[in-house]
Design a protein that fits this description.
Metal Transport, Frataxin, Chain A; 2 helices; about 70 residues; three-stranded antiparallel β-sheet
């Protein structure tokens, strides 16, 4: 699996139609295009997300590995 930072994942999701609702500390909260789902993405500089966290976020957002 490709390593992706929180910043990079947010950029990918925004291109897919997700919108940034707010930032609280190091956590960015995004809303999906339908407005009925939310994702909380930790952003710690350019540090890559752990594999389990990345897989869970991809599953919730509907992303596939080729989107990264």
């Amino acid at each position: 699996m490709k390593q992706v930072s929180g910043k990079k994942l947010i950029k990918i999701l925004i291109k897919k139609g997700w919108t940034l609702l707010r930032i609280k500390g190091s956590h960015h909260i995004l809303s999906n295009p339908n407005g009925d789902g939310r994702l909380i993405i930790p952003v710690h500089g350019n540090k890559p997300l752990r594999v389990g966290m990345l897989k869970a976020l991809m599953k919730e957002s509907g992303l596939v590995e080729s989107d990264l």
